[in-house]
Amino acid sequence: MAITLTVNGASRTVESAPDTPLLWVLRDELGLTGTKFGCGVASCGACTVHLDGVPTRSCVLPVEAVGEAEITTIEAAASPSASPTAQAVQAAWRDLDVVQCGYCQSGQIMAAIGLLEETPRPTDADIDAAMAGNACRCATYVRIRAAVHRAADTMEG
Amino acid sequence: MTLHTNRRGFLRGGAALGAALVIGITPEGALASDAIVEVNPFVRIAPDGTVTVLIKHFEMGQGTTTGLTTLVAEELDADWDTIAVEFAPSDNARYANLFFGSQGTGGSTAIANSYMQYRQAGAAARDLLVRAAAQTWGVDPAEISVAQGVISAGGRSAPFGEFVATARTLTPVAEPAVKDPADFRLIGNPDLRRKDSAGKTDGTAEFAIDVTLPGMVHAVVLRSPRFGGQLVSFDATAAAERPGFIEAKALPTGAGVVVYATTTWEAIAARDLISAEWDFAAAENRSTDELVAYHQGLLDQPTYEAREGGDLAATNGAIAGAATVVEADFVLPNLAHAPLEPLNCVIEPTETGVRLHDGCQFPGITHPTVAAILGLDPAQVEIRTVYAGGSFGRRATPSADYQSEAAMAFDLIGRDRPVKLVWTREDDLKGGFYRPIAAHRARIGLDAEGKILGWDHRIAAKSIIKGTVFESVLVKDGIDHVSVEGAADTPYAIPGMSVGLTDAESAVPVLWWRAVGHTHTAYVMESLMEMAAERAGADPVDFRLSLLTGDNPDHRRLTGVMQLAAEKAGWGTPLPEGRGRGVALHKSFNSYVALIAEVSTDADGTVRVEKVTCAVDCGTVINPDVVTAQMEGGIGFGLGAVMRNEITLTEGEVDQWNFPDYEPLRLTDMPVIEVHIVPSTEAPTGVGEPGTPPAGPALANAIYAATGKRVTRLPMTRSGVTFA
């Protein structure tokens, strides 16, 4: 059954079974591998994408349930035409060398962009609330927190 | 494979390093006008002057791609922003870990074993370009200077690319002079950014799970629910309901059923529809409570004396004369590594054999193992190393476990198309290769002045090493060194110490877990140190320092980090009500780390880890920010595990399922971490692991200081500690 999605601004038609989680449609069918598989049960956040701008766990969202929502993945969030918030987050992550293994970071960045779009000047408590669901086994959390603050600083400029 | 030295062995002189610098000109032919110059196995210069460093170690986040590239760039005076990084192929002859004699990463050795090798590689490239420039310009090589990829002499200057054609006609030297450390501009530079940051920030970094090839099929494996179970039969009829299901085949080992499908999801969903019968006759059928009791029983009669010069009878005699005796039992659980990228690899047919795409930690083991399974000559096997989404030891099995499964899966489907084999998170947590359960028992006798008279320390754990390719190197006189490392060889000057070891037997597969034996020995040693200090009426820092007064590097360097951490953490200054500080000091992988953790507790006793102050001495520092990051991450990894993590069995089946019941450290758990690095000109030592062992005991000691509760059974949540 063909399903039509809006992914990173483009209309894409996929043939996946309707119960297929959006994560696997993005990765295995559309080749958008920047979004990662970590747990499959919405418990680590590696699969975070935006649905109409809202950070969403794609590993438990059946593709049939996406409907008209606009899907944004790390590939778009890292493009030169990305929003100022997305660009500030990307720059902060690079400036502070947040990454170690890097596997969770697409999800961390999508969560951070979602937070900053909603709350441009987040407190530590805001960061806790928005990002505690994004696990990093390398424990880069000190820098994740610092990078979110730095991105907020840059945007305030 | 051959292992020439201890996994954590010391550098064996500089000559061997020079000899490893085999010089060769490009295989495309030295005379080809557009040929790349392969200065040596580690440095390649393109006709346009682009320098590429070939990285013989894999990158799991510990910073090897940055560190090894820094060593070359430093000696070559290359431009940091443009120097390129590429993973080396699998080749024991050229890319062995000089401490292992085989290509592989582990034991926090990546920088330590490569330090002179990669510097010399860079220096040879610089020498080659300088001679080419001297010849081109007709000047003395001594008049030439090099900086940031530009060669200058007199008034002239030109980038590397100008001299590549001439350089190709010259022969690189094998043992070039390297810089005086006083002249370093990149080594030790705190402003040098990681080479892998950009790709890992914009989603383009390639992990094995991202490899996509034409015609590729996706596979998962249905494994025995108990370790050591054997497949009797299976029924895949219902799997045909999945539109993407291809087929299911029993592994020849009887360990499981490979399920093939058109996508990962289809394979996972099809596997859920397959039923199987298992024979558990040879399986581990016990529950964790039985296993723990069994381990504790083994402490009564140690099989081995693991401490050099240790004598249990003499220790007992000394303790018999003690004024007071500290006694304690500890139990530390099985732990899963749970790297965030679930285990996976891709194997594809090539014209001459196969290519494996893998975040490959031990090519020296994986390469011959895959060749043997497929009946191929090793020359027919190629390993393409890509980024690994964490490991913490899990990707370094002596049996190449998941790559072997992939090779079998590739064979079973006819070897005619690429196969990507993926473990789910449930497969990972239930799939074994855990940090072994460790039971410890100690009796420490003190005299009336609080001085130690005797220390009877016993450990029971399943050997990680016995029965593996590492046994001949790491097991001596029956003693698996990694079961007792950090205790039997403690640098503390402890009189009358005996360390007894008994191997536990179980079908549960065990494996090194970030810092290996130190993960349990440091917890126990540093908890005991605190208990003994209290009994002696001594300050915990002073008590430790009193056992480190020898005129030797271990004592000097441990004292150095202990004093630095104490000073930076304000040790001894008053704390608000409900707060407590705890110390831990430990040497591992030839590095020295002191931590002081500070916790707060609220009215109902809920604990929050507020801050950890770290002092580390890891010799010469290549990249201070990477060292800081590894301390932050290593401490976090250690904290998360002791707080909440354990793998338990009920009648042989793993109780945990996924992250909701094997809860990883979260952002909200992470304390402020302050890292202080001791300046040093000693050889570089380990960084990836040494931050982890002292994290647990520093937290335990801080909790004791704040609450009076001593945790001897991990995880802490099992012992009644609640965390905010």
Give an overview of the whole structure:
The complex is a heterodimer of chains A (157) and B (724). With 157 residues, chain A is α+β, with helices and mostly antiparallel strands. Chain A is built from six helices and five strands. Chain A has helices spanning 22-29, 74-77, 84-95, 105-118, 124-131, 141-156, and strands at residues 3-7, 10-14, 48-51, 54-57, 70-72. In chain A, strands 2-1-5-3-4 form a five-stranded mixed sheet, with helices on both faces. In chain A, helix 3 (84-95) crosses helix 4 and helix 4 (105-118) crosses helix 5. Chain B has 724 residues and is of the alpha+beta class. Chain B is built from 19 helices and 29 strands. In chain B, the strands form eight sheets. Chain B has a seven-stranded mixed sheet with strand order 10-11-8-18-15-16-17. In chain B, strands 13-23-20-19-14 form a five-stranded mixed sheet, with helices on both faces. In chain B, helix 2 runs parallel beside helix 4 (110-137), helix 10 runs parallel beside helix 11 (401-412) and helix 15 (518-536) runs parallel beside helix 19. Chains A and B meet through helix 1, helix 2, helix 3, helix 4 and helix 5 of A and helix 6, helix 7 and helix 18 of B.
Blueprint (SSEs and pairs):
The complex is a heterodimer of chains A (157) and B (724).
Chain A: E1 3-7, E2 10-14, H1 22-29, E3 48-51, E4 54-57, E5 70-72, H2 74-77, H3 84-95, H4 105-118, H5 124-131, H6 141-156
Parallel strand pairs in A: 1-5
Antiparallel strand pairs in A: 1-2, 3-4, 3-5
Helix pairs in contact in A: 3-4, 3-6, 4-5
Chain B: H1 15-19, E1 37-40, E2 43-45, E3 51-55, H2 64-76, E4 84-87, H3 92-95, H4 110-137, E5 145-147, E6 150-153, E7 156-159, H5 164-167, H6 197-201, E8 217-223, E9 230-235, E10 245-250, E11 256-261, H7 264-271, E12 275-279, H8 288-298, E13 304-305, H9 312-320, E14 324-332, E15 344-349, E16 354-358, H10 363-374, E17 381-385, H11 401-412, E18 419-422, H12 425-430, E19 438-446, E20 452-461, H13 471-474, E21 475-476, E22 479-480, H14 481-484, E23 497-503, H15 518-536, H16 540-545, H17 553-569, E24 579-588, E25 591-601, E26 607-617, H18 624-644, E27 649-650, E28 653-654, E29 672-677, H19 695-707
Parallel strand pairs in B: 3-4, 8-18, 16-17, 20-23, 26-29
Antiparallel strand pairs in B: 1-2, 2-3, 5-6, 6-7, 8-11, 9-12, 10-11, 13-23, 14-19, 15-16, 15-18, 19-20, 21-22, 24-25, 25-26, 27-28
Helix pairs in contact in B: 2-4, 10-11, 15-19
